[in-house]
Design goal:
This protein has one domain. Strands 1, 2, 3, 4, 5, 6, 7, 8, 9, 10 and 11 form an 11-stranded antiparallel sheet that branches. By secondary structure, it is mainly β. Strand 7 and strand 8 form a beta hairpin.
């Protein structure tokens, strides 16, 4: 089902579990609380309320606490993470970062019984030693089984706060 695949597309940087802080990566190793929200979903410019979305998409939202380090300084790790977390549906073509932000873009190719969706994916993150904010946008044409085409756009946000040591 295509709606189940939508939820995995909202990829946001994951916490790297490591025993030691990565000095060149600004966010510190520690216990992080991360809040994920699906900011908006529009089809052909019409916005849909959270309660109108499939359960698989709403399941993306939530709060979790984990020990680790949000890693923004390794382009290869980011590309591997996006590919892994999307089951290979998405691939990054550009990844850049500096001392307090990172950006990426790429393409996804998803097909299933619910249709075909080939969106562009764009992400922008800002971070400090103890906070981060990640915004991911996916936008593209979805072709339904009846061959009708629509523009589907999704925006997801993840905000993290370091709440202590591991």
């Amino acid at each position: 089902m295509l709606s189940q695949k939508y939820a995995i597309l909202l990829v946001l940087p994951v916490l790297a579990s490591c025993a030691q802080d990565i000095p060149e990566n600004p966010p510190l190793l520690g216990e992080w609380e991360q809040v994920r929200t699906l900011d908006s979903v529009t089809i052909d410019g019409v916005a849909y309320a959270s309660e109108d979305l499939p359960a698989e998409m709403r399941a993306f939202e939530g709060t979790e606490r984990r020990c680790g380090e949000p890693v923004y300084t390794d382009a290869n790790a980011q590309a591997e993470d996006v590919a892994s977390r999307t089951g290979g549906y998405c691939e990054l073509s550009v990844y850049t970062h500096d001392t307090d932000s990172a950006e990426y873009s790429g393409r996804c190719e998803i097909s299933g019984t619910g249709g075909e969706y080939n969106p562009q994916i764009r992400g922008r993150s800002t971070f400090t030693v103890d906070t981060h904010r990640d915004v991911v946008t996916m936008e593209g044409t979805i072709t339904l089984p009846d061959q009708s085409q629509h523009v589907l756009k999704m925006i997801a946000i993840q905000e993290g706060t370091r709440i202590g040591d591991c």
